[in-house]
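Researcher: Let's do a round of design. I'm pasting the structure tokens now; please hold your answer until I've finished.
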């Protein structure tokens, strides 16, 4: 259980995330924290660009889905089926998004549904905090639509 698989995936397949220098800060099987330095994402107000904030928030949940699938033994094809974001405060520093802990029963249902149908969906949330206060709330519906064949 480590985030190396996600860092490797970003390095191979996600040029936008590479440009943003997105990396795994921590992963413990229940939550994922991603980090992107402010520099590549700074806007004219000297805060993080909204699109970059969105990318890190969506990737915290996408990455959580990806890593849980890898831990389960899958090489998944994952898409974001629905998403919404609330920008509550500007981000004047590095962007650090954390996926919120999902109920373990939701993960069990997710994998059971995948085993039965070859597809599954799960709702996940992430947050970005500034000085201990929530600055961004993100919600997304993530779907595993298949697995890559070796």
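Researcher: That's everything. Go ahead.
Model: Designed sequence:
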């Amino acid at each position: 259980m480590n985030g190396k698989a996600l860092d490797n995936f970003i390095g191979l397949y996600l040029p936008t995330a590479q440009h943003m220098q997105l990396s795994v800060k921590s992963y413990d099987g229940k939550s994922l924290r991603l980090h992107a330095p402010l520099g590549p994402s700074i806007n004219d107000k000297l805060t993080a660009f909204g699109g970059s904030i969105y990318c890190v928030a969506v990737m915290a949940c996408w990455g959580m889905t990806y890593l849980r699938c890898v831990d389960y033994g899958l090489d998944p094809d994952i898409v974001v089926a629905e998403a919404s974001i609330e920008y509550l405060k500007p981000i004047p520093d590095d962007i650090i998004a954390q996926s919120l802990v999902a109920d373990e029963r939701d993960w069990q249902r997710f994998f059971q549904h995948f085993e039965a149908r070859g597809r599954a969906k799960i709702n996940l949330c992430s947050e970005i905090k500034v000085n201990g206060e929530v600055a961004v709330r993100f919600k997304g519906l993530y779907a595993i639509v298949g697995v890559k064949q070796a």
